[in-house]
Design a protein that fits this description.
The protein is mainly beta. It has one helix and eleven strands. InterPro entries: DUF6265 (IPR046232).
C-alpha cells in the first residue's frame, strides 16, 4: 500500500507544468512581438506579432511560394478566465476562409516558462510552441497528427526582420 501511495505521489508531481497552469497575462507573451521571417520548404514565411495591448495580441502570417501567396493566418490572443487563448483562422488566396465563421481554432495557453509559451487545442490534437532563443531568433514548433494518425512535428526557425 505504501509503495502504491509513493508511486501515485510521484506521478502527481511528475505531471508536466503545462497541465498545472492556472493564470497568466497576455503581457507575459510580449517576447513573441515583432516581424519574423524564414525561408522554408513551404515557401517564404512572414509572421507579425503585435505588442500586447488591451489584454490582447494579434498576428498575421503569410506563406509565399514562387512569388504568390499560398495562404494566410490571422490570429488573436485574448484573455479568457485568467488565461491567454490563441484564436486562429486560415485563409486561401482571395480571403477564402478555411474555418467556419463562428468557429476559430482555439489554443489555450498550457505552459509558460520564461520566454517559452505552449498553446494546445483542448482535444490535444494540435500543439504550438513559441520560444525566443535569442533576441532575434524565434522557434515555433507545430505538433499534430498526420492523416494516418501518426505524430508529426514541423519546426520553424524564424529570424527577426530588422
Amino acid at each position: 500500500m505504501k509503495n502504491n501511495f509513493c508511486f501515485l505521489t510521484f506521478l502527481f508531481f511528475s505531471i508536466p507544468a503545462f497541465a498545472q497552469i492556472k493564470k497568466a497575462a497576455v503581457k507575459d507573451l510580449a517576447f513573441m512581438s515583432g516581424t519574423w521571417v524564414q525561408k522554408s520548404e513551404w515557401g517564404d514565411l512572414e509572421e507579425f506579432w503585435s505588442q500586447p495591448k488591451g489584454e490582447s495580441m494579434m498576428s498575421s502570417f503569410r506563406c509565399i511560394k514562387e512569388g504568390k501567396a499560398l495562404f494566410y493566418e490571422f490570429v488573436v490572443i485574448e484573455l479568457e478566465e485568467g488565461l491567454p487563448v490563441m484564436k486562429m483562422r486560415h485563409f486561401n488566396r482571395g480571403s477564402i476562409a478555411w474555418e467556419e465563421k463562428e468557429k476559430p481554432l482555439l489554443f489555450p495557453l498550457v505552459a509558460l516558462k520564461g520566454k517559452r509559451a505552449v498553446f494546445e487545442m483542448k482535444d490535444k490534437s494540435v500543439r504550438l510552441s513559441y520560444q525566443l532563443i535569442t533576441k532575434n531568433k524565434l522557434s515555433v514548433v507545430l505538433e499534430e497528427k498526420d492523416k494516418n494518425g501518426q505524430p508529426k512535428k514541423d519546426i520553424f526557425n524564424f529570424t527577426r526582420k530588422l
